[in-house]
Amino acid sequence: MRRIDPKEAHIKPLPTPDSDSQAYWQGLKDGQLLLQHCTACGHVQFYQQAICRHCGSESIEHRAASGRGTVHSFSVVHRAPGPAFKQDTPYAVLLVELAEGPRMISSLVDADPMAVQFDMPVELACEAVNDQVVLPRFRPIRR
Ligand SMILES: [Zn+2]
């Protein structure tokens, strides 16, 4: 197990793209949430993998999602999991059900975390952490 150096504990962990997820992370830099579509069986999946999790086909392609979904479940974090997240509390961790079907874990932006509700409509909000990394967050869709 990798132990976090106490000097690095205040630094938030960031994703390290690999060959399966490189296109996904680049998509976010371009403002798109890419999902994998299996051209053999039609299955849509998130997160990225080399094969279709439904039928095992390697014939999968990335397509941009609508960026819309609903809050399937959520949790409001009051006690930070480490020093790096202390200034963010309270914040809402979301399990978003995307319009295309897959569910993904993300977090809420541009809204009061205490106001999150089940089935609340949300949309993608790309958040640049630095020049290299853009993270997918979600904000409420206001009518
Ligand atoms: Zn498939």
How would you describe this protein?
This protein is mostly beta strands and 143 residues long. It folds into 2 domains: 19-64, no CATH class; 66-143, Beta Barrel (OB fold (Dihydrolipoamide Acetyltransferase, E2P)), CATH 2.40.50. Helices cover 6% and strands 35% of the residues. The protein has one helix spanning 22-29; strands spanning 34-38, 44-45, 60-64, 68-77, 91-98, 103-107, 121-128, 134-140. The strands form 2 sheets. It has a 5-stranded antiparallel sheet with strand order 6-5-4-7-8. A 3-stranded antiparallel sheet has the order 2-1-3. β5 and β6 form a beta hairpin. Zinc ion binds at residues 38, 40-41, 43, 52, 54-55, 57. Zinc ion is lined by residues 38, 40-41, 43, 52, 54-55, 57.
Please bin the fraction of helical residues: under 10%
Looking across the biggest beta sheet, what order are the strands in?
6-5-4-7-8
Domain count, please report it.
2
Tell me the overall shape: globular
CATH architecture label name of the largest domain: Beta Barrel
Question: Can you tell me the CATH class of the largest domain?
Answer: Mainly Beta
